[in-house]
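Anyone able to model this chain together with protoporphyrin IX containing FE?
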Amino acid sequence: MSTVYTYQEIAEHNSPKDTWIIIDDKVYDVSKFLDEHPGGDEIIFDQAGRDATEYFVDIGHSDDALKLLKSKCIGKVDVTSEKVIFEPKVEEKTEGNQGNGQLAVIVAILCFIVGYYFLNE
Ligand code: HEM
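re: yes, here you go
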């Protein structure tokens, strides 16, 4: 019988030295693997304490990666436990969006100047 963890318990393991992730309702302790991950430590750490199924599957990891993953399994998720609502990690994205907003304003001003110039030709 494997250990069963609530979403809350799993969410608490979200530091670089203590990183758990959920994939397909199973719990994996990837703390010691972060530095070895071929895709970089940050990409996994971003999912620390969370359900990383979508991210893990989307990459199309190899069978070797799946085997390695299996070796890190420490238990299962109590899927009946209350889910944890995480604050979205949007710091960089917000900055990016602001950048896009600024770009839109600059483009709009340029269009206005060019339009004004041609109308007064
Ligand atoms: C949040 C979850 C994860 C994401 C988003 C992710 C992402 C990635 C990415 C982008 C690569 C490609 C690196 C490259 O070719 O430049 C990669 C490779 C790899 N990852 Fe992950 N990874 C995740 C979790 C894991 C976990 C938990 C394991 C195993 C314990 C793992 C094992 C591997 C291995 C072995 C490779 C080498 C290529 C392969 O064999 O598929 N990854 N990963």
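Helices lie at 7-11, 41-45, 53-59, 63-71, 91-119.
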